Amino acid sequence: MTYAFGLDTFGDRNSDADGKPASHAQTIRNVVEQGVFAEQAGADFFGIGEHHTEYFPMPAGDVALAAIAARTGRIRLGSAVTVLSSDDPVRVFQRYSTLNAISGGRAEVILGRGSSIESFPLFGYDLADYEELFEEKATLFAELLKGEPVTWDGKTRPPLLSQDVVPHVESGPFPAWIGVGGNPQSVIRAARLGFSLALAIIGGPPARFAAYSQLFQRALDKFGRPPLPVLVHSPGHVAATDEQAKAEFWPRWREIIALMAPERGFAIPTEESFDRETGPHGALYVGSPETVAQKIATNLRVLDATRFDLKYGLPGLTHDQLMTNIELYGRQVIPRVRELLS
Amino acid sequence: MPEPSRLAVLGAGHVGPVIARLAIKAGYPVAIATSGDPEDIALITQLVIPGAQPRWASDAVADADIVVLTIPLHRFADIDPALLDGKLVVDAMNYWPTSDGVLAPFEDRGSSEVVAGRLAGSTVVKALNHIGYYELEDRARPAGAPDRRAAGVAGDDPAAVAAAAGLVDRMGYDPVRLETLRAGRVLQPGGPVFGVTLPRPEFERAVSEDARSLT
């Protein structure tokens, strides 16, 4: 079995060592440095999730990915996620096909809604239309990936008639995933349209997603498609020791979740809930390289997944803390997980 | 012991399968339905909700003693109220404009009161809406467990509230009864118990402090 290990960021706004927030511009430059360093440290994938807020100033991650592409040669680069429902699938294809050209075939996309909804009012979409928007646009995106002239008609964008969409990809479709947070009908959709499955597990016991992984492979079979990979995306933070990792992560985690709670209906984390989530049966990968590696290996097995993407960073952590996280993940966690799974 | 009530869960998204699994574990016969063909959710049922029967919504409801609504609230308007006439309906839906968009009929009101207003031939109880869908399964405990949590059950009809409380109890939570649907507003997003799991004493305290401001 071949495993791959990625790092994802939402462009979480950095702080300097004194706790003063870095500018959005500096945060974005730091993300580029982090992406370049992720390759040097040994990560296989670097993903940037689309967000439009003060704390996650990252609406155009593909531009940052292009800068990283120009300074790297091996690491795969993609979105994590692209909020397809409030974007134009043709434009998303064009941007990532351009990234694919710049990077010499290293582009990927993960399509989804994320837990992020700011783009809907920003671009004039109604959240109540989410389902129809995503269904139509994911269907069109699957057509665009084939690389042939597209004929398409729907309600969410103007029709296309034998439309040649450029730039053409050089060597077939680039990898495309649909991010799923817990709705089994989304798993079926990914299989029906031929996307790989990205399980976003951000709370609760990861093992409950094992049924989704099985559902995905069974659904692919039912739709006459070959098996496709499953990846797991979860938040975390790696530092030298468990204590240090928790001490750095916990206050930032509580702060950002408390800030988002009224809008998203999240429970405000308590020390008890944090201990549960960072423990062996929780969704957070916070700890020493050994602690995090053990948890990743266990869950890749349980979930029958072949890729793990660690969503690193939180608003308020420093660039140096994130670089240390990336270094430990790349140089210690990844080799250790490979060893545990071999 | 009497035959357990038969459940129909309407909705197979994030929440429906979790409620269905908990109910199956508690010994209830469960049918699950969406707005479409049961064949579309046959595989989901088999792998994610083993033991449940995928059915057409009308068939599932016809045979059910309790119907649990777990569809997105903006799809509620698509349901024909006649389908649910005479039924005990547990409303597990939420009005959550920042996540699902603004729905004018639900602004500044109790969402279950609006649901009950439209389902005039049904008896509506608000329950199973305020604990996150992954926590709902993770935190369920048998009666008497020291770390058992509470869950609110609100409605205007005492017999219906008692029946729904029995369901909540057997699914793994200490039911805390609220005597009106209006009082059930404390269970909504933004309320004191939404998204948190509390032991009964803390739950009762949080709810009673907040409920006073509503009366």
Task: Report what the structure shows.
- The complex is a heterodimer of chains A (342) and B (215).
- Chain A is built from eleven helices and twelve strands.
- Chain A has 342 residues and is of the alpha/beta class.
- Chain A has a single domain, classed as TIM Barrel, CATH 3.20.20.30.
- In chain A, the strands form two sheets. Chain A has an eight-stranded parallel barrel with strand order 1-2-3-5-8-9-10-12, surrounded by seven helices.
- In chain A, helix 1 packs across helix 2, helix 1 (24-41) packs parallel to helix 11 and helix 6 (184-193) runs parallel beside helix 7.
- The N and C termini of chain A lie close together (8 Å).
- Chain B is α/β, with parallel strands linked by helices and 215 residues long.
- Chain B has one domain (7-212): Rossmann fold (3-Layer(aba) Sandwich), CATH 3.40.50.
- In chain B, 32% of the residues lie in helices and 16% in strands.
- Chain B is built from eight helices and eight strands.
- In chain B, strands 3-2-1-4-5-6-7-8 form an eight-stranded mixed beta sheet, sandwiched between helices.
- Chain B starts with 6 loop residues before the first strand and ends with a helix.
- At the A-B interface, helix 6, helix 7 and helix 8 of A face helix 2, helix 4 and helix 6 of B.
